[in-house]
């Protein structure tokens, strides 16, 4: 077992939450980030559908998304490539879901005045993947954005290293104790760390980290969602809008050479 590495802040988790927090903390203190996997962003961050949709989620989530829009459209010099490109989104509704579509439109419009309530024929014109006659009405969000999640994540990784931070991969937390004003943490390589501040950014695995720290779990656990791809009909497929069922029972995201599809399971 090596001598303990001492740092001002220890961040657990190398997804977007962990790397962005570590970058900000590294502005005025020494930071070490531990990632359990051999690759950063191995789980949720690396599997993101990567779209900014201001109509997604409940009211607080929608407000936060709208407030954060300029972060992506006018990124800082930390990022070397554009973070956002235009991508419309269609929330489609059958005859049974017209009321749900109208409710979504009424809820979203105050924050996103560009949204439109359109009929099925217009929805089919915007997205020819729709089966004729399937859609009764749709909520069209023309200002949704595709996000470059990889560049977003890697920009923060570069920033951490530029600020002198340390990133350790294949380092799962296997022990953590509070001694006085500091945490003493051991990883799966039997390396040790001493820090006054530990940040649990382990995503769906945060309860596992919490248990190692002696904290009560809050019931968060990793779940699976089915995603599959099919070849695009042609290279123009990427220009048509996302298609999301208003009841969240499926979505299809067109990309240049393929369609990213999911039945959108809410739980198992």
Describe this structure in words.
By secondary structure, the protein is an alpha/beta fold. The chain has 2 domains: 5-47 and 150-212, FAD/NAD(P)-binding domain (3-Layer(bba) Sandwich); 72-147 and 224-262, D-Amino Acid Oxidase, subunit A, domain 2 (D-Amino Acid Oxidase, Chain A, domain 2). 24% of the residues lie in helices and 27% in strands. It is built from 7 helices and 18 strands. The protein has helices at 16-25, 59-67, 69-73, 98-108, 120-126, 149-162, 206-212; strands at residues 5-6, 9-12, 31-34, 51-52, 84-86, 89-93, 116-119, 137-141, 145-147, 166-168, 173-179, 182-187, 192-195, 198-200, 228-231, 242-245, 251-254, 258-262. The strands form 4 sheets. A 7-stranded mixed β-sheet has the order 7-8-6-16-17-18-15. It has a 4-stranded mixed β-sheet with strand order 1-13-12-11, with no helix packed on it. Helix 1 (16-25) runs parallel beside helix 6. The two termini are 41 Å apart. 31% of the residues are buried. The model has no long low-confidence stretch (mean pLDDT 90).
């Amino acid at each position: 077992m090596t001598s303990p590495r001492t740092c001002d802040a220890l961040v657990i988790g190398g997804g977007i939450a962990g790397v962005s927090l570590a970058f900000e903390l590294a502005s005025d203190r020494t930071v070490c980030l531990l990632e359990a996997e051999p690759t950063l962003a191995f789980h949720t961050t690396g599997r993101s559908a990567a779209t900014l949709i201001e109509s997604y989620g409940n009211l607080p989530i929608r407000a936060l998304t709208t407030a954060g829009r300029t972060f992506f459209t006018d990124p800082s010099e930390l990022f070397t490539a554009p973070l956002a490109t235009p991508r419309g989104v269609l929330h489609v509704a059958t005859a049974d879901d017209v009321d749900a579509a109208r409710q979504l439109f009424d809820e979203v419009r105050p924050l996103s005045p560009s949204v439109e309530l359109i009929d099925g024929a217009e929805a089919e014109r915007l997205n020819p993947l729709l089966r004729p006659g399937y859609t009764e009405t749709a909520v069209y969000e023309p200002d949704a954005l595709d996000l470059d999640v990889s560049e977003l994540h890697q920009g923060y990784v570069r920033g951490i290293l530029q600020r002198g931070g340390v990133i350790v991969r294949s380092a799962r937390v296997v022990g953590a104790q509070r001694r006085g004003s500091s945490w003493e943490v051991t990883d799966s390589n039997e390396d040790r760390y001493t820090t006054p501040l530990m940040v649990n950014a382990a995503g769906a695995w945060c309860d596992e980290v919490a248990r190692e720290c002696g904290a009560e779990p809050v019931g968060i656990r990793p779940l699976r969602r089915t995603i599959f791809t099919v070849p695009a009909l042609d290279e123009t497929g990427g220009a048509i809008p996302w298609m999301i069922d208003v009841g969240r029972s499926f979505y299809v995201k067109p990309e240049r050479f393929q369609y990213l599809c999911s039945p959108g399971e809410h739980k198992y």
